[in-house]
Amino acid sequence: MTYVYIGLLMLLSYLIGSIPSGLIIGKVFKKIDIREHGSKSTGATNTIRVLGFKFGIFAFAFDVLKGAFVIALVFLMKDQSLYIVSQYNITISSIYGLAAVIGHVFPVYIKFKGGKAVATSAGMILAIEPWVALAIIVVFLTVFLTTRYVSLASTACAVGVLVFFFIRIFFEHPFYNFATRIMDLTIITILASIIFVRHKTNYKRLREGTESKL
């Protein structure tokens, strides 16, 4: 029965991740469909570009929350069987986060055409490794303020997190055993791959010198 609950929580995380916050904010407050403007993405960056910083930052915050919500919920429920599984005591928190990211990128509510996975991935990392999330913010701001390219800053963060989680498997962790660290690295690799693929057109524009600065 526990695995049924885990499956339902993963579904819940996917459905929450599927909520297109930028699209909703644009339609409610500006009567604008952001899918018809800018990069046509429903993510926070296009929300900022189309609706402005004030509305975009709310979209960003909500997208981050989507990645962390079910992870936090499960911890608050204080039932370890919902996040520690198998004879190897694997902590599956990152899988809940992955479900939210998949929902964000392939949202069921808007024909599976969503954002680029960055903010929701950051929310998952915030929930499982808060200090790493703070480091990501520093990396993002450093690259962004230097270049003004969100795509480049997002990619730098994805690479940095991937390197961290790779190194992390070789060291003891107070909360996550070796099996969990291996699983988390696998999840992070999937998320980084999604981010790279979703930014493919941005990389092309960067090479051509036509990428828009924010």
Short description:
The protein is 70% helix and 2% strand.
Structural notes for this entry:
- The structure is a single chain.
- This protein is mainly α and 214 residues long.
- It has one domain (2-208).
- Helix content is 70%, strand content 2%.
- It has 10 helices and 2 strands.
- The protein has helices spanning 2-17, 21-30, 44-51, 53-77, 93-105, 118-128, 130-147, 150-168, 178-198, 200-208, and strands spanning 84-85, 90-91.
- It has a two-stranded antiparallel ribbon.
- Strand 1 and strand 2 (90-91) form a beta hairpin.
- Helix 5 runs antiparallel to helix 6 and helix 5 packs parallel to helix 9 (178-198).
- The longest helix has 25 residues, at 53-77.
- 45% of the residues are buried.
- Keywords: Acyltransferase, Cell membrane, Lipid biosynthesis, Lipid metabolism, Membrane, Phospholipid biosynthesis, Phospholipid metabolism, Plasmid, Transferase, Transmembrane, Transmembrane helix.
- This is Glycerol-3-phosphate acyltransferase.
- Belongs to the PlsY family.
- It is a multi-pass membrane protein.
- InterPro entries: G3P_acylTferase_PlsY.
Which terms summarize this structure?
single chain, 214 residues
